[in-house]
Structure formats: structure tokens, C-alpha cells
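User: Run a structure prediction on this.
Assistant: Running it now.
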Amino acid sequence: MSAKEHVSAKEYGIFLPIGNGGWMLSTTAPHPEASYAWNKRAALHAEGIGLDFVMSMAKWRGFGGTTDHWGRSLESVTMMAALAEATSRIRIWATLHANVHNPAVAAKMLTTLQDVSAGRAGLNIVNGSYPGEFQQFGDWDPDLSHEDRYRMTELWTEAVCRLWSEPSVTMHTPYFDLVDCQSRPHPAPRPTLISAGKSEDARRFQARYADGAFLAAESLEEMRALSADVHSRAKAHGRVCRTYSMLTVVQDETDALAAAKVKAWGKGVDREALTGMRTAWGVSENQARAWAEGAAGEAAFQTAYVAGSAATVTEHIEYIVREADLDGLMLIFPEYDADMLLFGETVLPALRAHDAAAAS
């Protein structure tokens, strides 16, 4: 996104439950199914209440446990193409692994999604950081360092963007080769590019290539510093990269009722799935198991969360977006039906009014 295209309004969207269990590792929490019906319903709710985007991850292997967390999942681009047809306004962001898909194949897939969605498509680019997902089908190179993976992703992204705009592309890289490679039609406009990560390599990539960066941090101070860094780096390239983070919303009529939900769901934390998640990250099984056994119930939540009444949720979101200098949030809901509709009725209008007042 060029500097001239910068939009100041805050953006709110949802992370779709494309894997079973959504974003809660708990036997006592709501358990969304990895079905098109569930995700279509969530996308239609999101569009109906006035959210800005829906995004789905790409997941190739789950974490096991009592809940078989993410053991069942759909393919991101295929599902988002269906959701593009089912919706009319909301932006549709899919995910692809640069280490799995040849850039020529990826370019054609997203061009198709952009056509189906009438210009609402986005691509979340990930470079494959969990060995267990890719070893199972022989697509993991243990010799590639973190820096190497980002170099591969940079070249991959350059290839995709060139295929979207040039009549023919020839590239020879250590990771793939394109020879007189053609990909038409070219998407118009170019799909939005998204990237998640907070490392030095990630932020450098985001500032140079992405229109949106998803960041995670241990504190609001760290988040503010990361967001400011991405904004500054992008500006140095003459472009804009908007920053987002993720937040799970647990809402009820009162703070006490919402807190009771958190406590109840924490009692069912799936420690075997937590162990599987950590081992997927590359942690040894003994270390992962020791951590999971000692984890508090809040470990059932895969992201930071807010629990409370509409007023509490609204105040918290306004506070973190302001204090962390974020351009928006990707929201997660435990069951994506009644809870999202409640948010749309009671919280989102207040956030929009606050943003409008701040802009004026």
C-alpha cells in the first residue's frame, strides 16, 4: 500500500475457525467444527454486523489431545473462494505457505480469488515455521535458518507480485525457478498482502512487502514499539503497512458472568493438546509436557483475551488499540454465533462512534 492510499479508520475483523476447536484448547469451551457451514455462518455474521475482513489460516496437522485440536481443518484458499461467493462486501483474506506452493501456482490461485470476490481478496503469506506440519509430506528443509526462510519468502513474494503485473517472468533462485513464466489475467487491483510475525526478519519483510502486519507481544509497551517500528520502516519505503493484533472476546451481560465463562473453560484445558502444540513449535516433548502440566487454565486461550460486559470490552479494545498504536484488531470468538452477534449489537457501534469522533 502506497503512502497515498493510507486509510486512518480502525479496522476490525475475525479469524475464522477453519480448524476444529477454533482458538480454544479446552474440553469445556465451545468447539466450532471445521466445516464450511460453520465458517460460512461466521463470515455472514461478520459481514452482517459490519466487520471489515475475515481471515483463515492454513493448517496441515493438528495438536492431538482429548479435543483433537485442529486435527480437522479445511484448505484456506478453497474455502475463502466459496465465502467470496457467499458474501458481497467484507474483505476475504486467505493464507498460503510460501514453502509449500510454487509462486506461479499461488499467483494464479489469488488472481482467481480476486476475480471471484470482485476485488476483495487478500493473501496472508507464511513461510512454514512448524516442522511437524511439513515433515509429514516431505516439505521441510532443516538446513534452512530463520533468515533463510524469510529470504525465500521475499523472493517468493517478488515472484508472485511480478506475475501479477508483468507479461513474462524469469527468476532463478535457490528455492524455485521460473522460466518465461506467464500468468494472466493480472488481478486488478492487486490483492492485499498480509504477514504475521514480530522478529527482525518479519518486520523487515512486512515493511517492504505487506499491506498489513499481525503482531504479538508480551506487553502493550512492546506492542507499541513493534507497531511504531513497522510503520516507520514502511514509511521509509514510501508505503504504508497497517498493524493489527489478535484478541479473543468473552462477553456477557456482566463482568462476573464473563469471568465465570473464563474460569469454566480454563478447568477443561486440554493439556495433551498443549503438549502437542509446543512440540509442533520444535520444543522437546519432555519440556512441552512439563510446561503443559503446570500451565494455568488461561492457557486454554491461544491469544490474549478480554472478558466482561459490553462496556468493559469496548473500553479494553479502545485502550489497547490506542496505547499500542494499532490500526485494528483481528477478533476471535469462542463459538462465533451468539457471541459475535452480541458484539455487533453492543460493542462494535461504540467502537465505530469512537473512531469517527477521533477522526473528526
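The mean pLDDT is 95.
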